[in-house]
Amino acid sequence: MTDAAEYRRHLATLDVWLADALERAGRVGPALDGVLFHAGRERTYHADDRVIAFWPAAHFRRWVPLDGPEHLVLAVPGRRPRVVRVRPRDYWHDTAPPPPSFWEEAVELIEAESYAAGLAALGAMPRVAYVGDSPAAAAEAQIPPERIEPAALVAPLNWHRATKTGYEAALIAAAAEEAAAGHLAARAAFDEGASEREIHRAFLAGCGRLEHELPFDTIVALGAKSAILHYQRKRGPEAAGDVLLVDAGSARDGYASDLTRTWTRPEADPVFRCLVAGLDLLQRDLVAMVTPGRPYPEIHFEAHRRVAALLSEAGILKVGVDEAVERGLARAFMPHGVGHHLGLQVHDVGGHQAAPEGGTAPPPEDHPWLRNTRTLEPGHLVTIEPGFYFIPMVLEPLRAGEHASAIDWPLVERLERSGGARIEDDVLCTEDGPRDLSRPHLPGPGENAGHNANVRNAGSTG
Q: How far apart are CA 63 and CA 424, in angstroms?
């Protein structure tokens, strides 16, 4: 896990990156001395007093592991960060002081009962930009509109978010281990015949988290619903199926993990079971591609090639791999990108950024859902999540088009009942190759299961 020394090294790296961002911003705009990072403000639903679940702003959270709204970090390169921890006097909520933590001695910590009191305690500030979610809060700090999240500053800050320090990687690794325990509990519940709702509760118990502590809503889908990419309903006892897809993660100090597994029961369609085992094996080869200097889209294109090979081997595609790729057939079976950056946000920022100064490196026109076009560097932390799905809405244009004869449609219709499959791990790019943070704690469906080389015979619809 993390300790005070690791956190100090983390702050030292952030100091360097902040200085770089301020220098780049100063080339095209007014000179700035530092940044006032704001955790953000609580908000309520429209015409209601119910508070929307609060998640601190990521750029703030990168400096200090504080939950809750209104906290501040005043960061000036070369100086110790000044942190305002806002703890109101309040008998409606638990405002007891938190236990001492390793990070407190590395910063100048100021306690305040309100945002305004925190600003007063900071006193006169140098020329700073405001980075946070509230223009009103910036105005209260007397920061003019042109210094509220200026694009020339936020672009390099976002760019550097892709590279994780040792402190950050350790937190994501811990979150992955925690989520893996939840996935194992979910699988056990599935094996016992549980419903989607019960499997979701098993995941929460397994990772020891409440729903609002998760970095995203869990996807727990049985049967055909596993082909709904962001399925959220979680049906009760009426839910049934021989296939389970769970896409869920946990978080440590705001840093997210994001793991997906697809499990099958013995009575599931034999072709689908073979496809899932094959998907797990090819995912391991894609993980091995997470190396410095590799453009991330290369992994995406290889995923489509390997999925096409898997479908061709099963007899779903009646053409060879090269022809299937040339015709774009695999895109109908894997209509999403192979993964994304991961960090303080599940889909972390900067994936389409062209350079530290900004600009966009868009995904290929025929792969618009690819979330990352960056070239991998040591410290980049990404997910690798190939999948295949039998989605009638997506496959219908293929069925009605010029390539319809290239598909075994009776077999596709049979497999629609099984839905789809996705396998996802969290992978750190290092000088020594990929470091998979989740697989050591959560095996895949293909491990120790082998892959049925005679999958075409299993898929015969004769």
A: 28
Q: How far apart are the first and last CA of the chain?
A: 56
CATH classification number, 4-161, choose in 3.10.150.10, 3.40.350.10, 1.10.3720.10, 3.30.360.10: 3.40.350.10
Pairing between β-strand 82-86 and β-strand 108-112 as defined by DSSP bridges: parallel
**Burial class (CB within 10 angstroms; exposed 0-12, middle 13-18, buried 19+) of 250:** buried
Q: pLDDT by residue (tens digit) across 430-439?
A: 999 999 999 9
pLDDT tens digits, one per residue of 119-138: 999 999 999 999 999 999 99
Closest C-alpha to 67, from 36, 38, 39: 39
Kindly indicate the confidence band of residue 446, based on its pLDDT and cuts at 50, 70 and 90: confident
The CATH number, out of the four listed (3.90.230.10, 3.40.50.720, 3.80.30.20, 3.10.20.310), of the domain defined by the range 166-458: 3.90.230.10
DSSP secondary structure letters along 440-451: TTS--TTTTT--
Q: ∠ CA 247-230-269 to the nearest 5 degrees?
A: 70
**Cβ(429)–Cβ(285) under 8 Å?**
no
Q: Name the pairing type of β-strands 255-256 and 251-252.
A: antiparallel
Q: Report pTM.
A: 0.95
